[in-house]
Specification:
Strand content: 15-25%
Structural class: alpha+beta
Helix content: 10-25%
Number of helices: 8
Radius of gyration: 19 Å
Order of helices and strands: EEHEHHHHEEEEHHHEEEEEE
Number of strands: 13
């Protein structure tokens, strides 16, 4: 069953926003970033990768209209390793990863508008840091590229679940365009699931205990490939919540908030572009593995790995 994610104005009083995040585990705030800044970032990204042929000829890069070619040729970070693509055999992946290292993306991620809201949501934090590790995620329309059901804490378990994620759509992402879906009021379920994994992992090495890909986890750290069944059974009938995400919006969520994405079925063939930013209080314990940038890379030794950039 589907429902709508509540939305809040950026001018909503701090205490209301804090209570909503605490209660619901997720907070969709409208107009956090000036729309023109988001659209300019989108334009720069597609200008950066357009040499791959990803865009429909004669269209505005800001629109990000897909060319209609073989989707496997345009697999981006988070998707490429699932379809056997790497930076040697996929030029689009290579340029997308490189774009994430460029100043226009770094400046976008570090814009003061998001950081200001984080400070408002977390007044108890002594300071705020942004993890360097992030991905630009691009979803080609009309192919199966949805992110399966998961929670961020699975990938951040070297520390308690005290970080905060900001999911930032880089362009308009309507209900048909592959936006995130949140399982309503699911933080308690996520905490319980992670506690169970902690018990299952107790006899593993320290590195394996922290890994989202250890022997006790499902493929790629996901919780299930079956969205409907998970909501009915583990979610006890909870709804998946969707929203109409617009350029300038930011969605903040708890690391144990369970979510996934829909497939991109955009009627205008627009490529869905977004990024995930994660924040923490540096005076408290946090997952140090996220302190460095990284790119996803398919390797022959064990099938999948990460190269980290300082």
């Amino acid at each position: 069953m589907l429902g709508w994610l509540p939305t809040y104005s950026v001018d909503t009083p701090d205490n209301v926003l804090q209570e909503a995040l605490q209660r619901d585990g997720v907070l969709h705030i409208k107009n956090v970033i000036p729309r023109e800044i988001v659209l300019e970032t989108r334009r720069q990204y597609f200008e950066y990768v357009k040499s791959t042929g990803v865009l429909k000829e004669g269209t505005d890069p800001t629109d990000g209209i897909f060319c209609g070619g073989d989707p496997l040729d345009f697999a981006g970070p988070g998707v490429a390793s699932q379809v056997g693509k790497n930076m040697e055999n996929c030029e689009y992946l290579k340029l997308s990863v490189q774009a994430g290292m460029e100043s226009f993306i770094n400046e976008f991620a570090r814009n003061p508008y998001i950081a200001k809201v984080v400070s408002r949501l977390k007044p108890e934090w002594n300071d705020v840091i942004l993890f360097k590790r992030q991905l630009l995620r691009s979803n080609i329309p009309h192919v199966s590229s949805a992110t399966k059901v998961h929670m961020d804490q699975t990938f951040l378990r070297a520390a308690p679940p005290t970080s905060l994620t900001a999911w930032v759509p880089i362009g308009d992402i309507g209900p048909l365009s592959g936006g995130l879906l949140y399982l309503e009021s699911s933080v308690p379920i996520g905490l319980e699931i992670e506690d169970e994994f902690t018990k299952m992992n107790k006899d593993l090495s320290e590195a394996e205990r922290m890994s989202a890909f250890n022997v006790n986890m499902l493929e790629r750290g996901f919780l299930t490939p079956n969205v409907v069944k998970f909501a009915q059974e583990e979610g006890k009938g909870r709804r998946w919540l969707a929203s109409n995400y617009e350029a300038g919006d930011v969605v903040f969520h708890h690391p144990c908030m369970i979510h996934c994405s829909a497939n991109n079925t955009d009627p205008q063939d627009r490529i869905r572009l977004a990024t995930d930013l994660r924040f923490a209080d540096p005076t408290q314990e946090y997952d140090y593995r996220w302190a460095n940038k990284y790119c996803e890379l398919r390797v022959s030794l064990n099938g999948c790995g990460f190269v980290r950039f300082s």
